[in-house]
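S.,

Sequence below, as promised.
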Amino acid sequence: MSDEVIASSLGVAPAELGKLTAVIVDDEPLAREHLRRMLEEQRVAVVGEAEGAAQALQLAEDLRPHLLFLDIQMPGLTGLQFAEALQQSTSDALIIFVTGYSEYAAQAFEQAALDYLMKPVSPVRLAKTLVRARERLAVGTAARSEIARRLTEQILREPARLQRLPIRKDYAVLLVRVEEIRCAIARDKRVLVRTEDGGEHRTYYTLTQLETLLPPERFLRIHDSAIVRIDAVEELLLLGNHSYAVRLSGKDQLPVGRARYALLQQRLGLSAPGLAPLEKG
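The prediction came back faster than expected:
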């Protein structure tokens, strides 16, 4: 069945059936194969399979799937017992029980399962579950984004306390230690932060915001397009015709604005009495 047909039957757009990842846990190989085929037809990437709870728990932690499809009746730990054990792990996968036994439904939802599917599962019923999964995951993503936003706002209100700069990623907030930041440069309408380990991170900050956030005793705006950590400057380059640049510890070469050159000299200790003028002879 195509995405368009499934989406039409649910009253949603095909895009709402977007790509998810899943692990299937069932002790019957034919049952796993059948469910895998159905999931792949509905654009779900099956990243792992397990026939027992111990292997499944390891897969859940290692592969970090969005979804876990669990049979209830399995040797060793049952699916219900596995779901309870999963709550003590680092996995945040959504649990979907797939079974031929309807009497376990109440217990399944006590384990905060997303859904309870009866075998044989129809494609349309499975598609409804996947739409619910995307909705639940979208809520989680929105919550993480809100936490990141509040963290950024808090730090913007308290710049003097900044020790680590939060940089928002797709599903996380990277906290970069201020002393590891080598420079920040504006490029292609975004600001890139470069670190001493060679990393480069796209941010949502403006250079003006970073100029306020970063400790002024350690950082300096040397150009409309660049901020540098003062002790990362290894060379001040005189390019002629009153043009200047700096070379940093990571071999970055950045321009210095004419209006900022005198302050840079002062911060580098190059304007002390007795020093020769820093101009080409």
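The helical segments are 3-10, 29-41, 53-63, 79-86, 105-110, 123-157, 207-213, 258-267.

Coffee later?
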